Structure formats: C-alpha cells, structure tokens
Amino acid sequence: MRRAHLTRPDVHRLTAAGFRRLRPALPVAATLTAFLGVASPVRPQPADRELAALRKHLALPESVSLAPAASSELPPAQPLRVRLAFGLDLKARQNVARWIEEWNRKETGRHRAMVVVAVDADADLVLARYANRERVRSQTVTGPDLVPSGPAGTRSGTRSRFTIDTVPVYGYVIDSRRRDAWTILWRHTGFTTLEETGGSGRELWDGLRELLKKRHPKS
Question: Nearest Cα to 132, choosing from 189, 185, 174?
C-alpha cells in the first residue's frame, strides 16, 4: 500500500452572526488530488474552545479581546502590513510569503500591495495558521497509477490503494489594528497533509486574496 498526501479544506467565513459555509477550497498539495477523495471537515469545536486555542497560538494577552468581526472588510491601509503567525508550519509560512511577493509584483496598481512585518505592533492584519499534529488521521483511498504514455505525457494504468495522513488545520485573517481588540475577518477549518508541501497554506492565501479582490470586483 502506498502513502500519499492530500489537502482539500472545508472553508468557513466567520461573521458576527456565526459561521457561514462556503464552497470547498481547491486541492493544492499533491499530484494525486485529481483522483483522491475529499477529506472530511473538522468537527466544529465550541466557539470558546476554538478562540482559546487561537489566543494561545497567538500568545495574545488577556487585555486584548478576540472576537468575530461585524464584516469582512479589510483595513484601508496602503500598503497593508501583514504578520504571518504560523508557528511551526514553516513551509506554509514560506509559501504564503512567496505568494504575497508574487501578488505585489503582478497586482500592484489594481489591488493593494502588502508588506510582511515581524511584530504585532506594526501589523494591520495577522494571518494565523496552525495544524494539530497530535490528531493524525489516516485514510485509505483507491486511485489510478500514472504511467508514462510517451515523451510528453502520462496515462492511467492500474489502480492502487493509497494511505493519506492528514491533520486538522485552522486558518484566520485577523484585523489587529486596535491594540485592545482584534477581530476575525475570515476563518478556515479542514484537514491538511501531515507533511507540508509546496501547496501548504494555500487555503489561507486564497481566503485573503478573495478579501483583497472584493474591493475591486471588476479588476
């Protein structure tokens, strides 16, 4: 049996009224995701427990409140100052930093630029992401082997069974401008691969990009 990797998160937006389910984000982590099944969403946690886990991840003082935002509107700063709070998800942090650089090169003039900062005091937004690596979940799926069909391509051969190790993952876009009150503009829960890949963090980046483009829907 082969061991493969998969991520296809179940995405939610957090508003003052609660969570509203959106369409699943696109798969990003491996060549096998074209034919492997969709990972199940994380079982919802009580809001207070999830907020407590996020506060711990951010090392947020008790003097700073943390709650859902009344709307998902981004801060008006230009450029947006963004801190990446990814903990030990180093590959995901590297990926998101790279996508921000690419965004700035390609989208400057149409959408707002961003700059990554190192400390909360300098940030308009905090992008937070963490995976619960103590809750590994293995799934077995069946899919076709990809075999060479010639110099320029592949074709489906026999079918094999693959084992996928996934862990719960959480992602947030947080307005951190007020030093005494942070608000959550966007939230994601789902499963991602235990081993980080070149696509790790894509669900969070796609969420931020959606918020950025909302300001210029015709761009």
Answer: 189
Q: Considering the domain boundaries, does residue 218 fall inside one?
A: no
Domain count, the chain: 1
**How does DSSP classify residue 23?**
P
Full residue range of the structural domain in which residue 46 is found: 2-143+156-213
Give pLDDT, residue 33.
37
Asked, for residue 137, whether it belongs to a domain, the answer is yes
pLDDT given at position 149: 57
Give the whole-angstrom CA distance, residue 137 versus residue 155: 30
Burial 107-135 (b: 16+ CB within 10 A, else e): beeebbebebbeebeebbbbbbbbbeeee
Inter-residue contact 110 to 217 (CB < 8 Å): no
Q: Is residue 151 part of a domain?
A: no
Residue 41 included in any domain: yes
Residue 85: burial class (beta carbons within 10 Å; 0-12, 13-18, 19+): buried
What residue ranges of the chain have pLDDT lower than 50?
2, 4-44, 219
* pTM of this prediction exceeds 0.85: no
User: Which secondary structure element, helix H or strand E, spans residue 51, and what is its range?
Assistant: helix 47-58
pLDDT tens across 114-140, in order? 999 999 889 999 999 999 878 888 877
pLDDT at position 78: 87
